[in-house]
Design brief:
The protein is mostly beta strands. It has two domains: 71 residues, SH3 type barrels, CATH 2.30.30; 31 residues, no CATH class. The chain is built from one helix and ten strands. The protein has a five-stranded antiparallel β-sheet with strand order 4-3-2-1-5. The chain is elongated, with a radius of gyration of 24 Å.
């Protein structure tokens, strides 16, 4: 089932590694291989579609929002626990941010020194 039929959006002068839209699925994909006189291989952010031949006329240009969506999905998909692609919610108490050490212990006390600097005290 073809989702996109707009012939004016058909991509020309294809570039390996660039993000295009697979007109059959409507998803942004990275161009990984060009098969002469036949079509291209496009893969989604999670590697689906690699090795599946897509006809040249079904490879369309992606707009900037679609490219950004692909890159965001790829970043989240390839994130590790040591360097997550997202940030956890920040914790606050008494109007100050709670800071946690590598062992998970929280810095819970604050006072200002004579110069107005924020000093954090550990429980």
């Amino acid at each position: 089932m073809k989702i996109m039929n707009d012939k004016t959006n058909k991509a020309n002068n294809l570039i390996i590694g660039a993000i295009y839209i697979n007109a059959n699925t409507g998803q942004p994909c990275r161009l990984v291989h060009i098969v002469s006189c036949q079509g291209v291989w496009l893969e989604t952010f999670d590697g689906q579609g690699y090795g599946d031949l897509v006809k040249f006329e079904d490879c369309h240009y992606a707009d900037i929002d679609e490219v950004q969506d692909f890159l965001d999905d790829l970043r989240v998909y390839t994130a590790s626990e040591k360097a997550p692609a997202y940030k956890s919610e920040r914790e606050f108490a008494y109007g100050k941010e709670i800071v946690r050490d590598y062992d998970g212990s929280a810095v819970i006390g604050w006072y200002d020194d004579n110069e107005g600097n924020d000093i954090r005290c550990r429980d």
